[in-house]
Structures are given as structure tokens and as C-alpha cells.
């Protein structure tokens, strides 16, 4: 049976086919997710223990503390599943492969509209944190930066209007 026929059968049975793209993570981002996962698993274990300890129903049939703990456990388990899903399909990116063009993992110094200079780290969507200078490669600025070289100028629509950026350095 060909791959096309297999996909038709899978689709016909109610499954959808989506190409698996790898989650791009820096080494630091991967380490942070692994650490967060371990912390969440510890928290889930503690919550289960607490639920077992307080699972003595009152006259209404359910202890309110146990209900709160169960709700918190659901949130923690959801976060665990989300992180595990990311870690099942990821690739470590470094940005060091070709330092003369911006790519995911690059540290980029840019001049904004001929005035101030800022340093940004171009990261995968999962690590983006604009307040610490980490911008997603899928954000408008991130998309505009990818593939650019030092001294290139480009414009990006921003809430304040079109801004002109110039690449000062790439690391």
C-alpha cells in the first residue's frame, strides 16, 4: 500500500494528518523545560499525597480542600502533558552555523529607526520572552530578521507605525 493510500485511509477514519515540525529550542530553553517538567512532576506527586490525606468527605460528600487540590492537580497535569509533548519532538538550535545571517538562535544587535540600539535573541516560539529580549522567530520582527545580514535595513509594521531597523551585528 502506498503512503498516499495510507494517508487517505487514516483521513477517512477521522484522523487528520499534519506534518510534524520539530520544536526549536536553545540549549538553555531545553534545560529550562526539563527542569520545569521535573518540578511539575514533584508538585503533582505532592498534590496526590495531599489529596489522599484530606480525602475525608464531609456531610455534603466532598471536602472543599480536596476539590481545590484536584483542580490544581488538573492544571499541573495539563502543563506536564504540554511540556512532554514539546520534548517528544524537538531540535536544539544554536545559531552558530552561519553567523553572517540571522537565524533562530542568533543574538542580533539592531538600530531602531536610526536612534536606539537593542539586542535581541531570536528563539523558537516556546522560548519567546520579549521582556528579556527573546523574540520569537514567528513574530513580525523575528520573521523580518531571519536571513538578514549585517548592515541590512528593513521595515516592520509596529503599533506605532512602520519602523526601520538596521542590523548592527550578529552573533
Structure description:
By secondary structure, the chain is α/β, with parallel strands linked by helices. It is built from 4 helices and 7 strands, in the order H-E-H-H-E-E-E-E-H-E-E. A 5-stranded mixed β-sheet has the order 5-4-3-7-6. Helix 2 packs antiparallel against helix 3. The longest helix is centred in the N-terminal third of the chain and has 28 residues. It is elongated, with a radius of gyration of 23 Å.
Strand ordering within the main sheet: 5-4-3-7-6
Structural class: alpha/beta
- The string of secondary-structure elements, in order, is HEHHEEEEHEE
Portion of residues in beta strands equals: 15-25%
Query: What's the mean pLDDT score?
Result: 83
Radius of gyration: 23 Å
What shape does the CA trace take? elongated
| Helical percentage | 40-55%
